[in-house]
């Protein structure tokens, strides 16, 4: 999928298998094999983000991301250059697949929230589009 043609319809919420402990000791979720449509090459997480701060504010030319709210909640504002939508992540067994070519901003972090990010590529500054006007030009 060419990133210039990627639209909001390419974004998916993926349910992560949840194993419930019958003894009441909590739940376990597993990401393996075909849980997400890419091999994970980078893992990082955001935490201690003030509620009035935002993260992201960029798009990627090649990288796919899978975001999970491990704790708490936050909003992900997504933009394909034509349409925008906001998705709230607040369940540790549901993740948001963001394909390449989509602008993203994370905001409204609840107290104690943790955002886990699984990425399809290692960090490469050349893959980032950090200015919104450049993003719109890139999308054509």
UniProtKB/TrEMBL annotation:
<dbReference type="InterPro" id="IPR014710">
    <property type="entry name" value="RmlC-like_jellyroll"/>
</dbReference>
<dbReference type="Pfam" id="PF05523">
    <property type="entry name" value="FdtA"/>
</dbReference>
<feature type="domain" description="Sugar 3,4-ketoisomerase QdtA cupin">
    <location>
        <begin position="11"/>
        <end position="139"/>
    </location>
</feature>
<protein>
    <submittedName>
        <fullName>WxcM-like domain-containing protein</fullName>
    </submittedName>
</protein>
<dbReference type="InterPro" id="IPR011051">
    <property type="entry name" value="RmlC_Cupin_sf"/>
</dbReference>
<dbReference type="InterPro" id="IPR008894">
    <property type="entry name" value="QdtA_cupin_dom"/>
</dbReference>
């Amino acid at each position: 999928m060419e990133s210039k043609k990627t639209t909001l319809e390419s974004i998916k919420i993926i349910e992560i298998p949840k194993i419930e402990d019958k003894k009441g000791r909590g739940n376990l979720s597993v990401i393996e094999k075909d849980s997400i449509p890419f091999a994970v090459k980078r893992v990082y997480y955001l935490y201690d983000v003030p509620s009035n701060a935002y993260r992201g504010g960029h798009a990627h030319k090649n990288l796919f991301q899978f975001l999970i709210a491990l704790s708490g909640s936050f909003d992900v504002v997504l933009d394909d250059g034509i349409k925008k939508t906001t998705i709230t992540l607040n369940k540790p067994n549901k993740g948001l697949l963001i394909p390449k070519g989509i602008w993203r901003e994370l905001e409204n972090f609840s107290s104690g929230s943790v955002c886990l990010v699984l990425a399809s590529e290692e960090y490469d500054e050349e893959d980032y589009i950090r200015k919104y006007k450049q993003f719109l030009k890139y999308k054509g």
